[in-house]
Specification:
By secondary structure, the chain is an alpha+beta fold. The protein has two domains: 53-120, Winged helix-like DNA-binding domain superfamily/Winged helix DNA-binding domain (Arc Repressor Mutant, subunit A); 130-280, Beta-Lactamase (2-Layer Sandwich), CATH 3.30.450. It has helices spanning 53-66, 78-85, 89-101, 117-129, 136-147, 190-198, 254-257, 261-280, and strands at 12-13, 36-37, 105-107, 113-115, 150-156, 161-168, 183-185, 220-223, 231-238, 244-252. The longest helix has 20 residues, at 261-280.
């Protein structure tokens, strides 16, 4: 953005002698008259700053480039970035150069691009800002040990997505389907229903809360909503004031988790209630 510019005007000012009139002679009783220009006092005009629309658009395009990286991507060539973003390659290269200077991306020896360390730093700042690091991970570890299934804590990012803030993998697992930092659609499984019930999107009507015994902490269980983890048990965790903080979720293969869903529901509800009390102080 260019700085504000101060402009100064000049005007013609008479000398002490009167100005000679056109067509008149100069008599001996009248001294010769001349005009001269003298700078007037500055008369400032504050010019309006240029529009910031171009700067805002550049930030948006840079975020689009960063958003092209998906879970599992370790590096992307320029052609893939162009295909995923719909931007010209020349535009992407300019944006990548700026992002690289700020350590948001890094260029590899083969010319491909990878996420940079600044993203990890920002993610760590976000995680610590929630004040959950001392509370949630131990609870997830206890749940995983008690159930043999993976446990995760999800928070809502916007009206369409959720992000895994913490994750505890089950013992002897061969593959971890979800890791901390993974972002997914809210979906209709247990975790998504927690958000739809206690933190609906703008203009959306909240789902009805599940029936519970008076005084018991609510919990949601679903089966068959996803192919990889078809069964899930999730409970809301509340912060001071009653607003939803996140969803505590146990998920696993349906043939293993669903037969013991009632037992797991009790464990998840108790754990979520304990976290809620911890956040309330």
């Amino acid at each position: 953005m260019e700085p504000n510019v101060l402009t100064v005007d000049t005007v013609a000012v008479r000398a002490d002698a009167p100005v000679i009139q056109a067509g008149r002679g100069i008599g001996p009783e009248r001294p010769m008259e001349r005009t001269m220009e003298r700078p007037a006092l500055p008369r400032a005009r504050l010019l309006s700053p240029p529009s910031t629309a171009s700067g805002v658009a550049a930030v948006g395009r840079a975020m689009t480039v960063l958003g092209a990286f998906r879970p599992g991507d370790t590096a992307l060539p320029l052609r893939v970035l162009a295909a995923r973003t719909g931007l010209y390659k020349s535009t992407i290269l300019r944006l990548l150069a700026s992002l690289e200077r700020h350590c948001c991306v890094k260029r590899n020896a083969d010319g491909s691009w990878s996420p940079g360390p600044m993203l990890l730093h920002w993610g760590s700042l976000y995680t610590r800002s929630l004040g959950l690091e001392a509370l949630v991970p131990p609870v997830l570890e206890s749940l995983t040990e008690a159930t043999g299934h993976g446990a995760a804590f999800w928070v809502k990012t916007d009206d369409e997505r959720r992000i895994c803030l913490y994750r505890a993998a089950p013992p002897r697992t061969l593959r971890v389907a979800v890791q901390a930092g993974d972002m997914m659609p809210l979906g209709g499984a247990a975790t998504g229903r927690v958000f739809a019930t206690w933190d609906p999107g703008f203009g959306e009507e909240a789902e009805a809360a599940p029936a519970t015994v008076p005084g018991a902490h609510p919990v949601v269980a679903t089966q068959g909503s996803r192919d990889l983890d078809p069964a899930a048990v999730s409970a809301p965790v509340f912060q001071p004031g009653g607003a939803l903080c996140g969803a505590l979720t146990i998920s696993g293969a349906s043939e293993r988790l669903w037969p013991e869903a009632e037992r797991v529901k009790g464990l998840v509800a108790d754990a979520a209630a304990g976290l809620t009390r911890g956040l309330m102080g």
